[in-house]
Design goal:
mainly alpha; 6 helices
């Protein structure tokens, strides 16, 4: 069951829909692109552009040590990938890398 979103509607509904749609998916570039990147809820978030970035950071922060898959969206929206090679695949550490990058780059939430 997805955690309730901590941000307002309509973005909150979209944030809640993405993790629920992605549970149990295998990892890999094709899966990320075709399922996460092309899902209707994910597309609505990506279409928001830069305003979505701060909201995603807020959601990541509130998710604690069990973050959902927001990294692809953040990379798409920011053009960056601050995840250190040794942290790839470790959701908790990837979350930390992104949150540190966000704060260092003025993406306060």
């Amino acid at each position: 069951m997805p955690r309730p979103s901590t941000v307002g509607a309509p973005f909150g509904r979209e944030l809640g829909a993405v993790p629920a749609a992605n549970k149990g998916l295998a990892q890999g570039a094709a899966v990320h692109f075709f399922t996460r990147g092309n899902g209707p809820a994910y597309q609505k978030i990506l279409a928001m552009g830069q305003p979505a970035v701060k909201l995603i950071f807020k959601q990541l922060e509130n998710e604690g040590d069990d973050p959902d898959h927001w990294f692809w969206a953040l990379e798409y929206l920011t053009g960056e990938n601050p995840v250190r090679p040794e942290n790839k695949g470790d959701m908790k550490r990837m979350r930390g890398d992104w949150l540190r990058w966000g704060l260092a780059n003025g993406k306060s939430w």
